[in-house]
Structures are given as structure tokens and as C-alpha cells.
Amino acid sequence: METKSIMIVGVGGQGSLLASRLIGNVLLSGGYDVKVSEVHGMSQRGGSVVTYVKYGDKVFSPVIEKGEADIIISFELLEAARWVSYLKKGGSLITSTQRIDPMPVITGTDGYPDDIANKITELGIEVTAVDALELAREAGGVKASNVVLMGVAASKMDFEDELWQDAIKQCVPPKFLELNQKAFELGMNV
């Protein structure tokens, strides 16, 4: 199998580490060689972060270059726009509609761009924009918006639901398991 690439992008504090662990776990259980990068960017809440995941028969490096990502999963709209050039032709973008104002917007020196998802769609890119924050709230906690997006991603990937459920059980603390299982299911059914 040719190597496939997934990028997870967002803002520090949104749960990209859990998301990359879930995907990595599913891919390993599916029998693939998997390489996951550490999060690049600021680990504190508010800084831009990116995680690379590559899988296939044999993977030598997790690094994804521009135009190589099969899927980009974005936890925030502006981050989707920032990283869209890494998507390969025919790739797909899954994004939360959540907006987190960067410092220039907070200080008033710049404005938050309008209609980001539609502008990306106009480039000929398949975009699935989801109000992951609201779905997480419906599941019982806004911190599960990352797992909502994993559910959306799972609905577009060819892996058995059992692999995803096992990954959630292995990666999520027991006291948050039910919340995350519900968040995942809501994402799967978008």
C-alpha cells in the first residue's frame, strides 16, 4: 500500500495529542506501519499546533510536505486555512467551525477572516465543516470536540468501528469514556 498522510491542526489545548493517539492506535491495530510526529508549535493553550501521521506498509518519516496530506483534520477554522496548502489534490479537509481569535484579532490590529470554509471549498477542495463544539456540548462536555472530529474522520476512513472503539477505551481515562464514546458517535453520524 502506498503511504497515506493525515495532518491534525489546531490551537494548543484543543486535544490534538489525544486525537493523534486515537488515530495512531487505530492504524497500528489495522496492521500498518505508523509514524506520528510530536506536536509542533506552542504546547500552551492558544498557540498553533500541528501533528503529522503517516501510515502504510513501511513508513520512514512522519513529516508531511506541502501537497502530500490525504486528510487534514482542523480543530479551528483559521488553522484550516493556514495549513490547506499541505492537502494533496483530491484530499479532504475536516474542520470544526470553531473560531479562536489569534492575538492580532484580540488586540484589534487585524480581523478574523470571513467565510473560511466556503473560500476553501471554492478552491475545489472537499470540505466537511462541523460544529464540533456544539456536538461535544450535546455529548456532555466541550472538551470532547476533538473526539467529535475523530468520529467525522472515522466516517471517511475505511477502518472497522471496533478498532475506533478499542482505541477510545485504551486512550481515554475511564471517567471520561462514556462522554467520549458519545462524542465520537455524534461525529460519525454527521
SSE pattern: EHEEEEHEHHEHHHH
Q: What is the helix fraction of residues, given as a range?
A: 25-40%
Class based on secondary structure composition and strand pairing:
alpha/beta
* CATH H-level superfamily title: Pyruvate-ferredoxin oxidoreductase, PFOR, domain III
Strand content: 15-25%
CATH fold naming = Pyruvate-ferredoxin Oxidoreductase, domain 3
Radius of gyration: 16 Å
Pick out its properties:
190 residues; alpha/beta; Pyruvate-ferredoxin Oxidoreductase, domain 3; 8 helices; 7 strands; 39% helix
Protein architecture, described:
With 190 residues, the protein is of the alpha/beta class. It has one domain: Pyruvate-ferredoxin Oxidoreductase, domain 3 (3-Layer(aba) Sandwich). The protein is built from 8 helices and 7 strands. The chain has helices spanning 16-29, 77-83, 103-106, 116-121, 132-139, 145-156, 161-171, 177-188; strands spanning 4-11, 33-36, 40-41, 48-56, 69-74, 87-96, 126-130. Strand 5 (69-74), helix 2 (77-83) and strand 6 form a beta-alpha-beta unit. Helix 5 packs across helix 8. The longest helix is centred in the N-terminal third of the chain and has 14 residues, at 16-29. It is globular, with a radius of gyration of 16 Å. The two termini are 29 Å apart.
